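Backbone-to-sequence.
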């Protein structure tokens, strides 16, 4: 009689992890696509998929140097790329930076996970905003920690509730996370808010992680204030990259820079250096585009002014949402998403998952439920406004039609 075969199980650390941007609903969309249905993918911020090409000069410099990209680089990154990042943050007021403070990664995502791996012991807590970019919550859990979510207030332009944040700091808290401009809400925080956030981190001697990947995608005169020049008495790690501002997600070129009380983080920095060495190096080809990107013409500025394509698409998305009875939305000040709220009392929908699945099955439009961003009320969704206006307008009309069909 044959022995029963033992099943191969995933790690228990994965049991509670979610990444709904490419979760079960996304898999359902792939299945429908394989059946011949055309799916409008409004689930992920992937500019190139909608005709937002990376600047030609970046592509040119990568191609011109591609033969020099065949070997491994320094595990922390090419000198020219790291120097360009250092210089960029000097222009926003960061002092006392060294090239050793900069690490290049395969996108910001890899660097976030690396920072959590180097910091967290089992049971440690990290304060993460809700709604959040879900990689932050998942990375904390993957490394044996616990993400504690502080609220962002929809009634206050999605600003962080700093009282709620500070009330959740415990002896187990190791770090705070700020996402500015915010994904998924599009919030951009005033300098006073960022300064208060920094003061809380310094008061409680917590590491401050600041995700600033959208720092140039700003609308209606919004100004981005980096934590980098504001922090002094604790360590801050600031993240940026090529993916969004430079429309080059697939190049996987990201960076992080350490600011503030670096002298208190010698052991942690040694750990990060070890982790960087273990992956040998980041994608070398993409690194040849970083100096060009940061030092060249900032074409993103042409896209976010009122006559720019991205601005027009933001306006179309936001204005259409605001015309749908039972839907409300805070106007985004940055990034490439709207995060509207559905008044579930007006619709035959149980929650945001029910809405997202129904919209996919009936209208073949893929968005992400608000609970996928660890938001607790189950009545929001995130929509990407990257498609050209004709395609986006059609999708918005389909969303309005679907909600009308679900109205009580």
């Amino acid at each position: 009689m044959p022995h029963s075969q033992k099943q191969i199980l995933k790690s228990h650390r994965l049991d509670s992890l979610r990444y709904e941007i490419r979760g079960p609903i996304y898999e359902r969309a792939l299945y429908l696509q394989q059946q011949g249905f055309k799916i409008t993918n409004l689930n992920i911020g992937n500019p190139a998929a909608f005709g937002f090409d990376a600047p030609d000069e970046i592509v040119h410099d990568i191609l011109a140097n591609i033969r020099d990209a065949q070997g491994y680089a320094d595990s922390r990154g090419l000198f020219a790329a790291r120097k360009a990042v250092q210089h960029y943050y000097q222009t926003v007021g960061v002092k006392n930076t060294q090239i050793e403070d900069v690490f290049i990664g395969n996108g910001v995502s890899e660097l976030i996970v690396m920072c959590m791996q180097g910091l967290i012991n089992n049971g440690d807590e990290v304060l993460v905003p809700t709604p959040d970019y879900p990689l932050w919550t998942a990375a904390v859990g993957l490394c044996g920690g616990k993400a504690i979510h502080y609220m962002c207030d929809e009634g206050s332009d999605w600003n962080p509730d700093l009282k709620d944040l500070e009330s959740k700091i415990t002896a187990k808290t190791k770090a705070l996370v700020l996402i500015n401009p915010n994904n998924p809400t599009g919030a951009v925080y005033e300098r006073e808010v960022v300064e208060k956030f920094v003061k809380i981190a310094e008061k409680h001697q917590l590491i401050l992680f600041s995700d600033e990947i959208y720092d140039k995608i700003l609308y209606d005169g919004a100004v981005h204030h980096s934590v980098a020049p504001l922090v002094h008495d604790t360590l801050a790690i600031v993240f940026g990259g090529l993916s969004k501002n430079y429309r080059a997600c697939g190049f996987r070129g990201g960076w992080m820079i350490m600011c503030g009380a670096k002298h208190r983080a010698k052991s942690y920095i040694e750990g990060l250096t070890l982790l960087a060495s273990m992956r040998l190096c980041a994608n070398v080809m993409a690194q040849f585009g970083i100096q060009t990107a940061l030092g060249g013409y900032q074409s993103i500025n042409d896209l976010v002014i009122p006559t720019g394509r991205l601005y027009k698409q933001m306006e179309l998305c936001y204005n259409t949402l605001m015309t749908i009875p039972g839907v409300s939305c805070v106007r985004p000040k940055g990034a490439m998403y709207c995060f509207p709220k559905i008044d579930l009392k007006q619709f035959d929908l149980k929650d945001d998952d029910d809405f997202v699945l129904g919209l996919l099955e009936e209208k073949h439009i893929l968005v992400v439920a608000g609970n996928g961003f660890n938001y607790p009320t189950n009545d929001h969704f995130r929509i990407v406004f990257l498609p050209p206006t004709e395609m986006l307008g059609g999708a918005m009309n389909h969303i309005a039609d679907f909600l009308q069909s679900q109205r009580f």
